[in-house]
Amino acid sequence: MSDLRAPPTASSVRVLDPQTLRLVLVGALSLVAWLALAAWSVSPYARYLEHGGWAGDGPFGALCRSIPQGALIVPALVYAFAWLLMITAMMLPTTLPLLGIFGRVVSARPDAGALVGRVVAGYAIAWLGFGLLAHGVDSVLHAGAAHVGWLVGRGWVVGAIVLAGAGAFQFSALKYRCLERCRTPFAFINQRWHGLAPRGEALRIGFEHGVFCVGCCWALMAVMFVVGMGSLGWMLVLAAAMAAEKNLRWGRRLRTPLGLGLIAWAGILVAANV
Asked: Angle CA(228)–CA(234)–CA(238) in degrees, nearest 5?
């Protein structure tokens, strides 16, 4: 007699619960961002990811020339989009513990998914604000360096300063005050979630968590300005380091090797160019 098996019934099919599904969607969003950055970095428009070639041919170059103040507006908008992709790829996965706990806290609410989305939005707003500020500082430095004869052709000096500064920040008290807030997501949510104004509280939780995340990770993110915004390899390395610092028990042990490694890298850069 042939072995006939009944088809699976609805009750036997395993369906992801809403909380797990939300976390899977966050992970999928991060993966899409990685793929988009990878495609951009090997496309004919990769120079825009590195914030170069604005006056040349191509859609963004044409926009720069066709609209008033295009040389300022278009690079800023493209940079903001690229930065959001980077944050989604590198930093959003580090919030999974926070999103998981918050999702369980609001799981009984009919608007639980929308509230988790507001936490993500608040987090993105905080990092986008930092990214635009960093872009402004970077633009001012490049404009200033162009008028300093000694710095022309010596971009490695700024790179060495950024690397040494990032290494020194690894040993600062501010970094670890911010990092401690990121490492205790339950306490972070418990202090801020009351359910009285759920939409505002969810946005605030995401934004303030993003501010503390910027506080502990901004120096490592600044290293991307040295290695290149389109360097996926370095993005993976830095993302893994920041995720480990924030979420793993032994993450604090990275303080010394990361700090000394960055300072040594700055020293090697100086020695190679002096």
From this structure: 115
Joined together, the tokens standing for residue 223 give 């290293």
- Total number of domains constituting the chain: 1
0.85 cut: is pTM over it? no
Map residue 14 onto helix, strand or coil.
coil
The verdict on residue 4 lying in a domain is no
2 inside domain: no
The mean pLDDT values, 10 residues at a time, for the chain of 274 residues are: 52 64 88 91 77 60 66 75 89 91 92 93 94 81 68 74 93 92 91 93 96 93 81 89 89 90 94 86
Tokens of 180: 């401690």
Tokens representing 44 are 């004919």
Per the CB < 8 A criterion, the answer to whether 118 and 33 are in contact is no
Residues 260 and 150: beta-carbon distance below 8 Å: no
